[in-house]
Amino acid sequence: MKCRKSKIYILCMVLFFSFLLSGCLGSSATEGNTDEAQGESARVEYRCISNPESKKKIYVILKNYHGDYWKTVIEGVEKAAKEVDAAIYLGGIDNETDISGQTRLMNEAIEQGADGILLAPANSNSLVESCAKAKKKNISVVLIDSSINSTEFDTCYMTDNIDAGKMAAKEMIKLLQDAGNSPTRPLEVGILLSSDTSQAIVNRVSGFLEAWTQYAPSQWDIVKDIFLNGGDVKKAQTDASALLEKNKNIKGFYGCNNTSTIGIAKTLVKEKRTDIVMVGFDMAKETQQFIQDADYQGISLLQKQDQMGYLGIHSLVSLIKGEKSEQKFFDTGVIIVNSYYLMEKGVS
């Protein structure tokens, strides 16, 4: 057990230091990542989605504009936009590694006279300077989905990702047990994530590893290679396949974000690996189909990302009016989605 704890500790430290250094060095947690930290620019330019004549201007900057997860965020933003007196400008990046693109969008918002910025930071280190610049201009800054390594923002709406990671580990252990895996026989769990520069993702991994060390049988281990896909589903599929090929004892996969979860689900179905369980995040079509398929075993932690967008816009309007919040962080919560949940909700 002591040896296993040491290995988990090393994994945590590798990821932690990669997270701290990535803002300066653009480094990766493992050699499995082929994406550059400063990815090819794929910006989605701003478009006004409501009240263009309003004197109050709010700019929304997302970190994966066309992803399924972010479409739900946009739904929350659009709902709030109908309820407030503010011109809402929606923009973002299509590649989560495009830090320079997100920084440019921040600069444009500041230069165009933003009163408030709703930001989903792609990098918790590299966006600190931009947020500080906005605050110096008396621009209200609200973060969603992930925070930054600074206090240069007003409020943040996100999942308590450490707790969510712990929840994921407990669900993984339960699924592995339900699948008939013996606590005395060795097995491994592979981990896929989109980025090691997002505080949210790092916390999901650290929470998972903490609970895994505490509750998993001593013969059950974590694959030392943690692959990064940069928010790209095809890359996530390639990574999942590579982990299966390299590690014959894998009996579980943990997907720390939407694209990783989709990639895992598609890979397991394609390779007909009914012996492997999955714990993921969020709810794309492929994830739903995987959970509903009786041949496979998996669950997903569904974030309330629509609430992040909705509450974030309302918070900005209040801040612009001069109404300050004493609370810095707001946990929007998660829901455990399994086949029974989908059945009860009538999802088909």
Describe the protein in words:
The structure is a single chain. The chain has about 350 residues and is an alpha/beta fold. Helices cover about 45% and strands about 20% of the residues. The protein is built from 11 helices and 14 strands. The chain has a 7-stranded mixed beta sheet, sandwiched between helices. Strands 7, 8, 9, 10, 11, 12 and 14 form a 7-stranded mixed beta sheet that branches. Strand 7, helix 6 (about 200-215) and strand 8 (about 220) form a beta-alpha-beta unit. The radius of gyration is 20 Å and the shape is elongated. The termini are far apart. The relative contact order is 0.15. Residues about 15-40 have low confidence and may be disordered.
| Low-pLDDT segments | 16-39
- State the helicity in percent bands: 40-55%
The number of E-state strands comes to 14
Number of helices: 11
Please give the radius of gyration in angstroms. Answer: 20 Å
> How would a crystallographer describe the biggest sheet?
7 strands, mixed
Chain oligomer state? single chain
Mean pLDDT equals 89
The order of strands across the largest sheet is: 1-3-2-4-5-6-13
In whole angstroms, the N-to-C terminal distance is 43 Å
Instruction: Determine the strand fraction and express it as a percent band.
Output: 15-25%
The gross shape turns out to be elongated
Give me the strand/helix succession. HEEHEHEHEEHEHEEHEHEHEHEEH
Secondary structural class: alpha/beta
